[in-house]
Design goal:
Blueprint (H helix, E strand, L loop, with lengths): L1 E6 L2 E4 L4 E9 L3 E10 L6 E6 L5 E3 L7 E6 L4 E6 L8 E10 L7 E4 L3 E6 L1
Parallel strand pairs: 2-11
Antiparallel strand pairs: 1-3, 3-8, 4-5, 4-9, 5-6, 7-8, 9-10, 9-11
Length: 121
């Protein structure tokens, strides 16, 4: 089994910062891409940022310059540092990881349970 457990969400005022963490555990051989998605009420889940195993990153335009994604491969953990938060960033944030459980097996996408981020204006 593989589990992704997020932490770090909460309530913050506009202009403030939060740092999300997501640790993958269980039977893991390797992890390729790790990322963060978010889903606001009544809207679809959309990509926020992702990082591949080599360190290359990709961000949605609305968070560029404010959010930073990073990962600790030794800990199978991905982080999302969120600065200058805006009310529009309010959503449930989900982490995801493409995980290979055994050598030679394909990668499958796993998801965390989500963590609420609320930004008050």
């Amino acid at each position: 089994q593989v589990q992704l457990v997020e932490s770090g969400g909460g309530l913050v005022q506009a202009g403030g910062s939060l740092r999300l963490s997501c640790a993958a555990s269980g039977s893991i051989f390797s992890i390729k891409t790790m990322g963060w998605y978010r889903q606001a009420p009544g809207k679809q889940r959309t990509l926020v940022a992702r990082i591949i195993s080599g360190g290359s990153t990709d961000y949605v335009d609305t968070v560029k310059g404010r959010f930073t994604i990073s990962r600790d491969n030794a800990k199978n953990t991905v982080y999302l540092q969120m600065n200058s938060l805006e009310a529009e960033d309010t959503a449930v944030y989900y982490c995801t990881a493409a995980i290979n459980r055994y050598n030679g097996q394909p990668y499958y996408d796993y998801w965390g349970q989500g963590t609420q981020v609320t930004v008050s204006s």
